Amino acid sequence: MNLILDNQHLDHTLYEKIQHGQKDFPIQFYIDELYTFENKKFPLHWHFELEFFIVQDGPLRAQIGNQFIELSPGDGIFVNGNTLHSFEQVHKEDRCKCPNIVFSAEMIAPHSSIIFQKYVLPILINSDLPYFVLYAGIPWHKEILNKLSSIFSLLHQYGLKSPFGDFPYLPLNTEHREEACFEMQVQCVLNQIWQSIYRHLDQIPKIAQTQKAIQYQVRLQKMLAFIHQNYRFEVSLQHISLAANISKSEASRCFHSFLNCSPIEYLLQHRVESSKHLLSYTAYNIQEISLECGFNSPSYFIKIFKRNTGMTPREYRANSNST
After folding, report:
1. Is CATH 1.10.8.60 the classification given to domain 211-322?
2. From CA 12, how far away is CA 10, in angstroms rounded?
3. Which residues belong to any copy of the HTH araC/xylS-type domain (predicted)?
4. Per-residue 3-state assignment (H helix, E strand, C coil) for 191-254
5. Edge-to-edge, what's the strand order for the sheet holding 60-64?
6. Over 60: is that where the pLDDT of 3 sits?
7. Could you give the CA distance from residue 313 to residue 272 in angstroms, rounded to a whole number?
8. Is-contact 261 303, C-beta < 8 A?
9. More exposed terminus of the chain, fewer Cβ within 10 Å: N or C?
10. What is the mean pLDDT of residues 73-79?
11. Is the separation of the CB atoms in 193 and 185 below 8 Å?
12. Measured in Å, how far apart are the chain's first and last C-alpha atoms?
């Protein structure tokens, strides 16, 4: 079962509410340590920015929309903007560290420029290109992977430290940021990568998204919005399905297609995640928290919380306070 990301970082559509990089230099380098995440997974989310993600250890399973892709060590993947995606370890005992960059398309060229209109926009709006996999055994893929390593190295040495401590990242050296035209070098290599992608568009497999998959995603986000807005109250499968004007069975198929869980399982996950914040940052007692998060009794809250986390709410609070 997938676990939703911290409620502080995702909105009701699974949009990741994070500024990657700075407004004047919108790129950020991360190393996602998947073994540190619950269920060894970075949960399903989306952002406007583009992403290159490299598998340093593995194997990994990527979910893009409702499609699943196996990735081996040395592989990479490009994820287009506005695309639901997640990454998880295949083997729970692995310790996977995955370097990646998330960046605005304006790192390549300004929106108003002919470069953006001619070479960037056609890829951004290509519905047949939600992602593509980079394999080290393909020469032009290998060239892109090498250039990504160069960008990682530059951002590691000179880049700004990520302010998001909740997300694993490699600490960056900020003392010599002005050396070696750092920002220009990053942009230059990123442009070289983009040129290679554009020149090889005819070699990138088309990932045709069916109308059914697109329809499922729209319905899912309507139902997620309803859950996030109403989880404190009594919510049934009927209520959730009506939010997307579909049957209960269709709602269940939609959730299983993207999230591998039922609507009610997701509702309970969300309630548990919401309760974690109250346990960590408020003095509310267990009964108050259970009611605040939509559970009809403290005993049921304790049962579901322990089933999802492996500990009782009181144990979680004590552990949170000790750290």
Report:
1. no
2. 7
3. 221-319
4. HHHHHHHHHCHHHCCCCCCCHHHHHHHHHHHHHHHHHHHHCCCCCCHHHHHHHCCCCHHHHHHH
5. 41-45, 85-89, 60-64, 67-71
6. no
7. 9
8. no
9. C
10. 95
11. no
12. 27
Which tokens hold the place of 200?
A: 């090889």
pTM of the model: 0.77
Residue 63: helix, strand or coil by DSSP?
Answer: strand
In the structure encoding, which two tokens stand for residue 135, read together? 């394999």
**Model pLDDT, residue 161:** 55
Partner residues linked to 32 by β-bridges:
98
Q: Which amino acid is at 67?
A: Q
What interhelical angle do 211-230 and 263-281 show, nearest 10? 40
> What DSSP designation does 21 have?
S
* Beta carbons within 8 Å of 258's beta carbon, 6+ residues apart: 44, 65, 66, 84, 216, 217, 220
For the chain, the domains span 27-203, 211-322
| Domain range 27-203, CATH architecture | Sandwich (2.60)
Report cis status (omega within 30 of 0) of the bond before 59: yes
Residue pLDDT, tens place only, 292-310: 999 999 999 999 999 999 9
